[in-house]
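Take the subject:
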Amino acid sequence: MVRVQNLTRADALSAVRNPLAFIAERWTPTSRTVQRAALAALVMAVVIVVTGGAVRLTGSGLGCPTWPKCTDDSLTATSAMGFHGAIEFGNRMLTYVLCAAVGWAIIAARSRKPWRRGLTRLGWAQFWIVMSNAVLGGIVVLVGLNPYTVAAHFLLSTALITVAALMWQRTREGDAAPRPLVGKSVQQLVWFLVVASVLLIAVGTVVTGAGPHAGDSSEVARIPVGWENVTKLHAVLAWIVVTLTFALWFVLKAVDAPQGPLRRTRDLFLILLAQGVIGYVQYFTDLPEALVALHMLGSCLVWIGVLRVLLALRERPETVADLPGPATTSALTRA
């Protein structure tokens, strides 16, 4: 049996003043625990995007017609609201699960020894993005699923995935200055890939805003552009991303790059191929809801894959802390 330390009045006051520091003094997570916490936050960021898409695809976007309550008189969905109310309210409840995952990542990062402030800041960045997107989600409901606010809601979720993926990567490397693993020409090619991917995702939100899945059975305004034309532009950008990815893989092989960037580029290429198949099938089968949901999941995975390729171009080893006292002096003498 592990004896639990008795809490004093001073401990209680310390916990109230700074609960994170209080927990960090009494708990030291392993590196694997911190990595899992960061991964859990990333997974939940993807889940909330997919479930948000399910709300729209089932026409449940206004299942709770107001915000922050579900109705003017009820905080939760009622039986009279039926299936759509349950779907919309369930998605709102998943936000709390996402907050719990982000909170765990923050606590684990803060409790790590030695404390890495950069990791904690990335955790808090996720928290504030979640809060901002919750407010934006409320605005989306209050303005009747205006397609521009829906697009902004998705892009902010993509920003959350970006920070979560970065934190997950940082938990598996040190804090030393990054050292490039490839030359500048390869880095420039990857940045072209990143820019093309951002455009692909942005145009994808326009496709959604102009397309037939408005998110509710009532009349919902759409973005006034030709849906088929913007879809074709989206497809062109997708082919550009695929071509850049294949070119990157070829260049990495030619310059005998490390296995890390090569493997991640290969993984991205396979994800892009699967996403392309889903995209073309859904287009020629009049956008069945299940395939659209898979395409939204694929969009998240493509972006994570692009970020992983970008982050694989450098390494950041663990920093070696200076030893106090005589050990430091002897080390300096030897140097």
Observations:
- The CA atoms of residues 128 and 160 lie 9 Å apart.
- Confidence is low (pLDDT under 50) at residues 321-335.
